[in-house]
Write a structure and sequence with these properties.
The protein has a domain of 156 residues. By secondary structure, the protein is mostly helical. It is built from 8 helices and 2 strands, in the order αββααααααα. Helix 2 crosses helix 4, helix 2 packs across helix 7 and helix 7 crosses helix 8. It has a two-stranded antiparallel ribbon.
Amino acid sequence: MKYILFLFLSIPFFLFSQEEIGAIQDSITEDKQLIKIEGDSIFSTQIELKEVELLPKLKFTDNKARRRYLILRRKTLKVYPYANLAAERLQTLNERLAKLKRKSDKKSYSKKIQKYIEEEFSSELKKLTRTEGQILVKLIHRQTGTTTFDLIKNLRSGWRAFWYNTTASMFDISLKVAYNPIENEEDYLIEDILLRNFENSKIEGLKTALDFDYFEAHKKWSKKITNENTK
């Protein structure tokens, strides 16, 4: 009986609330049109747009600079999927390892992941040129926040990482190299290439794991190029 009484006592309140809501909606629709966005159950009088940062217009000092950029773009877009894959595999590996309790299980799972990556992608990676391989090393650092050398060192033994780095150096590739668009002009150009292709939806973009400001890098390097041309 208490629940029934509560229900009846509540009816006037609900009726009043519905009347008030209806009056408010009527007053809104008189001046503004309500909009319902797909996936949202609430009507709104406006659409909130995401903030978009427009990239500065590309400028080349001469045909040589333009050609350099186009070559770098081709190589960057070729190896970027592998860097993305490395970031995804590393995240999966870390999430799985966090759930495993025994050290032996963690070691066994790490070996399985490493073997899978090596068997599936080593043949493709061997087809890369030296410059493509070095760009890939930089992009792996961009995506994961860890250099390729340290990734190998953490997953394997320190000696194995040293051996990999020594072998790579024979082909002019350093696994220790970091990605730094603020201090390295080529890295700035690579970042510019990625952001423009993210913007055009030509490739799927992932936020970098590193902390740097592209616009700060652009300001520095565009100013440097301008000063060199005025000398």
